[in-house]
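Journal club prep, notes for RB
We'll compare a predicted complex against what the paper describes. Inputs for the GMT case:
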Amino acid sequence: MKIGILCHSTYGGSGVVASELGKLLAKRGHEVHFVTVGRPFRLGTYQHNIFVHEVAAFHHPLFEVPPYFLTQVNKTVEVLRCYQLDVLHAHYAVPHSLGAHLARQIFGKHIPVITTLHGTDTSLVGAHQEFYEITRYGLAASDAVTVVSSFLAEQTRQTFHYTKELPVLYNFVDTDVFKPEAAADRNLMTTGDEALLIHLSNFRPLKRVTDVIQVFHRVRQQRPARLLMIGDGPDMPAAQKLAQSLGLAKDILFLGQQDTVAPILAAADVMLFPSCCESFGLAALEALACGVPVVATRSGGIPEVIEHGKVGFLTGVGEVEEMARLTLLLLEDRSLRQKMSVRARSHAITRFNADQWVAKYEQLYRFLLENQ
Ligand code: GMT
């Protein structure tokens, strides 16, 4: 098949899922065309069957802001004409769902449009009054809408009064890339008996990165430990300030955005993931695949990914004392940690391995093509 993917290329889970899906579809012999602003950061280097069509920012004195939506639709129509795509897959409702729909209208031939909702597109952006009507229309105009968790399915039904089917196609992970053996040399990151904790996110407020620092602070009071913070975003200054004020500047490394995260994740003992309102939690799944137990919150779709007491622990949002207690439990009890690590890896392989979920997307494309 020839598949067009519209996605955000910036640092965030929806772009990661779109990129990983595109790479794996290309490996399975499909021709994949990304229509994006910039190269999605997880696409990596050249891969056979992958094409990137960049949407340029058009500057004109009349436009205060370059009209991204229009240039993306225009580029998508060009790609549809030039490559005769079979399907268009929009990741993130705003604006891609509507963009894909409009592009096919202009193209003049009905090809299936699939929209995958990732979470913030319905919970934050789409639910906002400024975007509500167009998001709802984009969903209604799609031939299929998929969601990344049952939690998100329910939220979408409630928010948009969406009554059609909402297949849950979970986030997935390439377990050949995210694996314990990918670990970087720990000796370069820690000294002696230091435990290694990790956090990975885009540092938006809902990621509660200051909770990560608070948990680490409590752990550090009990034992030698180091924390690696991967990512960047609006709450970076608050996290750095808190780390300074708690005297943790030397124990916490703020690594910023990293394109290749598997070696860092796999070297860690425990991941801290204190988000509120997370639709799935892809970063947590990537840690599990690396055999790293996760201490997270019982919020949104996270319990669909992390089974409490089996592959990690769940607490209420903001319960930093309890998170610290459970983290210390994992760090002190080596045999518990090893058991959880083995279970985490096998849980990622059996429930969330990429092949299984990419095949479901493929089936969906085929079904829509055959039934249009
Ligand atoms: O978490 C973010 O802020 C990024 C966001 C996105 O849309 O790029 O991630 C969402 O999509 C991911 C991939 O499907 C999910 O794993 C994340 O849980 C989800 N984030 C939220 O729901 C907050």
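Talking point for the session: The chain has a mean pLDDT of 95.
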